[in-house]
Every structure is written in C-alpha cells, then in structure tokens.
Design brief:
By secondary structure, this protein is mainly alpha-helical. The protein is 78% helix and 2% strand. It has a two-stranded antiparallel sheet. Helix 1 runs antiparallel to helix 2, helix 3 packs antiparallel against helix 4 and helix 5 packs antiparallel against helix 6. The C terminus is likely disordered.
Length: 250
C-alpha cells in the first residue's frame, strides 16, 4: 500500500467520520423527546458530543494531511485532541445517568474526569513529539505509557460501576449495560492500538495508519456507543411509561 493511496484513504475516512457524526447528532436530537424526562440528558449529551465531533471532522477533512514547507505531512492532531478533550467527558457522564446513580456520582465523575484529562493531555504530548520527526521518541513512549495507565484506570472504574449496578437493573437495560461494557473494555482499546503503530515504525505510513484507526474508532465509540446508550434509555423510559406510577388516574 503506497503512502499516496493511504493518504487518500485517510482523507476519505475524515469525510466518512463527518457524515457519521452529523447524522448521529441529528438522530440523537430527534430521539430526545421519545425518552422519559430523567433520561433525556442521555440523548442531549449524545447529540452534543457527536455535533462537536462533526464540526472537528469537517475541519480536519480540509486541514489534515497537508504538506508543510519541508514536504512533510502535517497531521490534524490538535483538532483531534480538542475534540476528545470536549467529548470524552460527555461520554463518561452518560453512564451514571443510565445506572440511576443517586449517591457517589460526584466522586465517580471527579475520578473519571481527572484520569480523562491526564489521558488526553499525555496522548497529545506523545503524538506531537512523534509527528515532529515521524519516528518513535522517548517522549512518545513515556507519555504513551502514562496515557495507557490513565486509560486503564478509567476502564477499571467504569467496569466496576457498571458491573455492580447491572444485577439490579431490569433485564433489557442490563443487557444494554452489558453492551456498553464491551465498548468500554474492547472498543476503547482501539485508540492505544492506533497510537502504538507510530511507536514501532518510522515514516509517514504508521502515522497514516494511526489516523485511519482513530477515525473509525471514533465512529464506533461515539456513534455506536451513543446508539446503545439511547436504546437503553428508551428501554428504561418504556418501563416507566408502563409502570403503575404512570397509569392515568381514574
């Protein structure tokens, strides 16, 4: 696979990413009114984060992968990490809503947000170090390790919270939480896997593969994750509508 073809493939993937995020934002916004009031924030957060991602993908599709004055490929790393800095906290905030957490939400979110900021910032520093020369660097390895540790902590905390709550939820919502656990456990692993390509190879090709992996990982872990989350919120809303509390007074 030549770098020219790979560059073209990555550029098209930015278009695909924009289309998926824009469609997702519209879908989640329209679904909001179909949810019970206490679950509408799930659709609101889903629409907001995919809209932010769509804006960034629209920008990256034109800005990204341009040639600088020295003929080196310029990657849209700063736009991507601005996107993640804004959207990953929204993804994390969806889960406590679905779990109906009434106590301990503040402490849980504080731990997750601190780890999330560490993960995003260390990832940005590591990638910009690698992008400067398109070869593995000590800084790249060190900050990759720090980011992976923060990522592992987030997965550990979320997995534990979802597992402890899953047994107390209705079957349909418990299955949805199980699917979200798969996203958290396996889907999010795509990101460190994409970064790793640039730590084991020189030149533009590993970095291009990284960008391609990131683009499709974003589609899976934003649009896909939010579709499962909204479906879980809808299932919970239907239970509420059919419950005795929701029955009309005679």
């Amino acid at each position: 696979m030549t770098e020219t073809f790979l560059t073209l493939l990555v550029q098209y993937s930015f278009w695909i990413g924009f289309s998926a995020m824009a469609a997702g934002a519209l879908y989640f916004a329209l679904e909001r009114q179909s949810l019970a009031v206490e679950y509408q924030m799930v659709a609101t957060l889903s629409a907001a984060l995919t809209a932010i991602a769509a804006i960034n993908y629209w920008t990256m599709k034109d800005f990204g992968l341009s040639l600088d004055a020295e003929g080196q490929l310029s990657f849209p790393t700063h736009f991507r990490y601005i996107d993640w800095l804004l959207t990953t906290p929204m993804l994390l905030a969806i889960i406590p809503i679905l779990l109906n957490m009434e106590r301990g939400v503040g402490a849980l979110m504080a731990k997750l947000l601190i780890a999330d900021v560490i993960m995003v910032v260390t990832g940005y520093v590591g990638e910009t170090s690698i992008n400067a020369g398109l070869f593995p660097t000590v800084v790249g390895w060190a900050f990759y390790a720090a980011g992976v540790l923060a990522f592992a902590y987030i997965v550990f905390v979320l997995y534990g919270a979802m597992t402890s709550a899953q047994s107390q939820l209705p079957p349909e919502r418990a299955r949805a939480i199980g699917r979200l656990k798969l996203f958290v456990t396996f889907g999010w692993l795509i990101y460190p896997a994409g970064f790793f390509f640039t730590l084991v190879g020189d030149g533009a090709t590993p970095a291009l593969i990284r960008e391609l992996v990131y683009n499709f990982a974003d589609i899976i872990n934003k649009v896909g994750f939010c579709m499962v989350a909204v479906a879980a919120a809808k299932a919970a809303s239907y239970v509420r509508v059919g419950s005795p509390r929701a029955a009309p007074a005679e």
